[in-house]
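Example record

The entry below shows one chain as it appears in the dataset: sequence first, then structure tokens.
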Amino acid sequence: MILLGSTGSIGVNALAIARRFNLNIDVLVAGRSIELLNQQIREFSPRLVVVERREDLVRVKHSKVLCGEEGILEAIESSQSRLVINALVGFLGLRPTLKAIECGKRVALANKESLVAAGAFIDTTKIQPIDSEHFGLWYLLNEKRAHSKMTITASGGAFRDWDLEKLQHARLEDALKHPNWSMGQKITIDSATMVNKMFELLEARWLFGKGEYDAVIETKSIIHALIDFKDGSTTAHFAHADMKLPIAYALLGKVEEQILKPVNLVEVGSLEFREIKRERYPVWEIKEELLSHPKRGLVINAANEAAIGLFIEGKIGFMEISKKIITAFHHFDEEAASLDELFEMDQEVRRYVSLGA
């Protein structure tokens, strides 16, 4: 396989599955965690390695190392592997997804931004989702019965239990205190704003087609997806929050041995569900309009990345992230007709947000 994002949590879990089933790693792509990358190189002996920054090339203990986006695209094109795991964070992951499909490869996708920004230009038959929520929907849909609604769950993020008045004063360190698990900086902030769940709903729309989609907060993150069937019944996908299960299916195709410890409902005791309310998560007000115009996902992605950058730099408050996304969404109401237009519009939205929209 080609593993994009090898030192992140999904990459580490993918390598755990590769270790267990003795799978070959052709290419490792990593960011700035060079020490961990070198450990992975020693264990898995990839043919080629790619790192984010040119200055890190000398630190990587491998004979063939490339860098940057160009290096990633070259690695994908040169590899004989038919599978790419894309666990890159942000818009950076889009071109590798496009390149992999262009080269006839299958993509195990954890990079949300690929489908959010460019779902209209991606052949989703080449995509195997490895987010827990989309994997859960895919798993339940294998029953092939007529359904009426698909629902994914959210943890609620760092501020799900905060008094609403306090949110205006939330700091970066507060936003990074996820109640259920440890993740990267951007996705943890996205969880706190509920943008992450907006992205996942839009991904589901591209992956599974038109239909009714929604999300609810499930505070223990044991249920990942639910499907309402037309006969009036509902099924739910229960599993511990561990990415190894969807990754195993993406890598192996068929899984016939235990990957995770089964959920013990007696130990769980009870489950709590909450509505996602606009007062706490203002971005939720554009959910239905976005799902009706899925090509405009490009706008919310670019606006979100730009706004998060401003928040991290201390230039705006936490609640302003959602305000900037909503303002940009209403300002840019056109849709890109080509990939060239898409990349141009992405830059235009970022400039608009960064210049004080």
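Notes for this example: The domain at 164-172+283-357 is CATH 1.10.1740 (Rna Polymerase Sigma Factor; Chain: A). The chain has a mean pLDDT of 94.
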